[in-house]
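pasting for the record
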Amino acid sequence: MAIKANKKTETSRMSASKFRTGVYPGTFDPPTNGHMDIIARATRVVDKLIVAVAVNAGKAPLFTLDERVEMVESELASAKLQPGVEVEVRPFDNLLVEFVSDVGASVIVRGLRAVSDFEYEFQMAGMNSHLSPELETVFLMASDKNQFISSRFVKEIGKLGGDTRHFVSDPVAVRLRERFELI
């Protein structure tokens, strides 16, 4: 049996809803079409999204932190995002749960491409939950056309002279080509 909400119930539910700020963390080295897909879809789940670009020196990024922040900001300028949702890009170099707390967020957004991602992400979500029980982790599955894209493979294709335009925007593909010409 379906229950139809009346205007009073609907209004009280809407006013009782909580403003949700989410954080989508990553290295974004470089930002891919898969990253942008998750960002666009995350704007349907939260009221404000902070794309947190990690220093992550352990991954030996191809691009500097400032370059990665600038690329994500440029990509967002043409992204199809949910109207009314604020999206900002911030660098971070501390523990994710500390960053999330510092920006007043309550949700961590993570993208999943394949079953192999799940085990690592599940462990990370458990650790984050242990460190900060009030946080929720939301997993978004990559869309079919983006499930196989990873920054690591994009960099490898670019390094070997392949065409990366199927996996990143044209401006990012140009930056990859220029970077590999310098190496």
